[in-house]
Amino acid sequence: MTALLEGFHMVMAPDVLIAILASAVYGLVVGSLPGLSATMATALLVPVTFYLSPIAAVATIITASAMAIFSGDIPGCLMRIPGTPASAAYTDEAYAMTRKGQAETALGICLWFSALGGIAGTLSLILMAPALAEVALSFSTFEYFWLAILGLMCATLVARTSPIKAIAAMLLGLLISCIGIENPAGTPRFTFGSTDLLGGIEVIPALVGVFALAEVMRALTQKDMPPIPHRRLGSILKGQWELTKAYPKQQVRGNIVGIIIGVLPGAGADMAAWVSYAMAKRFSKEPEKFGTGHPEGLIEAGASNNASLASGWVPSLLFAIPGDTITAIAIGVLYMKGLNPGPTLFTEKASSMYALYIIFILANIIMIPLGIMMIRASSHILRVPRALVMPVILVFCAVGSFATGGNNLFAVLVVAAFGLVGFTMEKNGYPVAAMVLGIVMGTMVEQSFVTSLIKSDGSVLPFLSRPISAILALCTFIALFWPFFAWLRRYKASLDAASPAR
Amino acid sequence: MRISDRVSGLFLALLGAAAFWGGSRLPPVPGQQVGPSAFPMVVGAGLIIVGILIALHIGRSFEEQAEAELAEHSQPDPETELYERRRQWLVLLPPGLLVFYYLVSERIGFILTAAFMIGVLAWAFNARRRLILPVALGGAVFIHLVFFKVLRVPLAPGLLPMPW
Question: Is the ipTM of this complex over 0.90?
Answer without folding.
Answer: yes
